Every structure is written in structure tokens, then in C-alpha cells.
Amino acid sequence: MRGIAVRPARAFANTGLSLGMTLVAAVLFGCTHHPADGDGATALNAYPTNYKSDILAAMHAYLDNPTGIRDAAIGEPALKSKGGTTRYVVCVKFNAKKNRGNDYAGSKEVAAEFMVGRFDQFIENIKDLCAGTTYTPFPELQNLPP
Questions:
Q1: Range of the domain at 46
Q2: 100/83 same-domain check
Q3: Which residue from 22, 43, 114, 133 could staple onto 75, CB 3.0 to 4.6 Å apart?
Q4: What is the pLDDT of residues 42-60, one digit of tens each?
Q5: What are the φ/ψ torsions at residue 131 (nearest 5 degrees)?
Q6: Same domain, 46 and 5
Q7: 9 with 64, same domain?
């Protein structure tokens, strides 16, 4: 009988150890996803210090033909609300070529959205997102290499 009583005790001890390790892992994992200051909105909305270079890099993937862009202009980063969230947004205007041809598509205005200070996505349906933006020339966009 003694051997029967020992087995459940060992099984319980191993289960307790596994549970304890799982709890420690869960606590440590939970700590890594919360900023030290406790304010996740501040971390998500860090000012995009390299916004111009981020936008230039993203334009290569966004445009079919990133060369020969005309009338490029850019606004300053501004906190804007969209769909219940607040993010830094940079409005950009440009006239890019259609596909790989030499015809131009016409003036276009997009908003570059940033999270944690880095480019996240372009927003095409901007409605009032870029209303009132003061634009300055953006020659770097006009001189993108192929």
C-alpha cells in the first residue's frame, strides 16, 4: 500500500511545480507588454522623429512608379483622431506617374499614420484628417531613386 500512496503525492508535487512555473511565466509575460510609466497611449503615440525618411522608404512599396514625382509637399506630424484612436499623422501631397508609363495620375493626398514613432500605414480615405494642414515642399520625394 505504501507505493500507491507515494505516487499521487509525487504527481501532485509535479503538477504544483508546473502550475507555479506557468504562473511565474504569465506574470513576467504580462510585465513585458506594459510600459514602465503605465501609460500605453504615450508609448504608442511617440513623436515620429524620422518621419520623412520613413515616408520615403514606404513610398517605394506604395507607388507603382516612385520616380518622377511632381508637386510633392508634406505637413508636420500632428496627433489626429481616427476611428476612436489617436495617432501621429503626417499628410503628404504628390502627383505620381501611372504604373510604369510617363502619364501622371493627378494630385493625390494621403495620410501616413505612425505608431510608436515609426511609420505604420498610408491612409487613402482621409476625409477631414488632413483638413487645415500647412504643407511645405518635399523635394526628397520628388527625387526618389527607382
A1: 40-142
A2: yes
A3: 133
A4: 788 999 999 999 999 999 9
A5: -60, 135
A6: no
A7: no
Q: What is the pLDDT of residues 108-121, one digit of tens each?
A: 999 999 999 999 99
pLDDT at 41: 67
Beta-strand relationship, 104-115 and 136-137:
unpaired
CB 113 within 8 A of CB 46: no
3-state secondary structure of 146: coil
Contacts of 51 (CB under 8 A, 6+ apart): 77, 88, 90, 112, 114, 119
Kindly state whether residues 82 and 97 are assigned to the same domain.
yes
Structurally, how many domains does the chain consist of? 2
User: 2 falls in which pLDDT band (50, 70, 90)?
Assistant: low
Q: Could you report the per-residue pLDDT of 70-86, keeping only the tens digit for each? A: 999 999 999 999 888 99
Looking at residue 38, the DSSP 8-state letter turns out to be: S
Lookup result for grid cell 512608379: 65
User: C-alpha grid cell for residue 73?
Assistant: 509637399
Per the prediction, the chain carries an average pLDDT of: 80
Residues 68 and 96 in one domain: yes
Give the C-alpha separation, 11 to 20, whole Å. 14
HEC sequence for 20-34: HHHHHHHHHHHHHCC
